[in-house]
Amino acid sequence: MLTPQSRSQDFAVLDDMAYLNSAAEGIPPLAVRDALDQYFQDKRLGMAGRVPHVAQWDAAKALTAEFFGLTANEVSICSCSSEAYNLAAMALRLKPGDEVVVNDLDFPAGATPWLQPSCPASPRVWRNRGGALRIEDLVPLLGPKTRLVTVSLVSFFNGFRITLPEVIAAVREHSPALLAVDVTQALGRIPLDLAGADLIVSSTHKWILASHGGGLVGVPAARSAEWTVPAGGWFNLEDPFGATRFDKAVSKPGAASFTVGMPNYPAVYAIRAGLDYIRSVGVAKIDAATRPLVLSCVAELKKLPVELLTPDEPEHIAGILAFRHPKADAIHQRLLAANVHVMCHAGRLRIAIHGYNTMDDVERLLKELRAALAAE
After folding, report:
1. Which of residues 233, 254, 279 is at a domain's end?
2. What does the pLDDT average to over 197-217?
């Protein structure tokens, strides 16, 4: 990552492959393999293995807090971002008449809990224009009944990056709502400044190069009361084995309430290793090295007979580019045959550029893409 030597050493699988699909699945470095091996060795200790398990848990929380701009007590880890949002829906205790603002560039995990028939609140949809979410379209959706606005910092769909301070300012000025921010497509790829967010959520198997089975949750201490999950369990409870355990259950406040049962320790080991690896390289360095690749790629895509879905606005571009073509599936198959890996879904092709990518990867993609388009 960032040098030919480290790329070859840590990501040998990429030597013959142009892998541009980190928005779906990140390629883990050897450090993550070693961490999972260590989990196995620790698990073999039986109950004594819980001592190193807890040490990994604490280290993963501390690293997550560092990336989120919070303290370790303000973060926790559940099983995935979908679980985090469903638990968040429980915490809000929404009532009829409440409103929740979602948007049409978001991943289903952050939007669908509020769309279920059982949800008493009314959803309002912040719709994109030309692939962009505009603040002037958000403001009319906000009002005294707005309880939550949920948004991704970077859209999984087309890579549009919101200007978070502008969103926060609009939400604060026009409503009493809480703001939930999904950083799945940003964490480990671009520098983060999440000050003002009320809930932070991320998956773990994409840009931070860890494993499945993790969901990172951040709750600033000032918002603990609003985000305390009233769920059954034990790890999330104040006194699960005390004398009054069958009289009442009291959740720990804030982030701690999002881990309801035994942590997924294999994922925790991988999260610690992935975040530690990303930190050792430096997110600012990753962004600086990959941004020219992203801008060069979008400039060339504009010359091709495709429908570019990513707005051509550099300030709103992170690591994802997307376009649509009627023969997307056939083009995708030709790219795969050339060992060029991107995402294809419902006529949309998505490119994701990370720190282990090079200009050679981008040029290889464009060469094969031009050939595939010409063949179609």
Report:
1. 279
2. 98
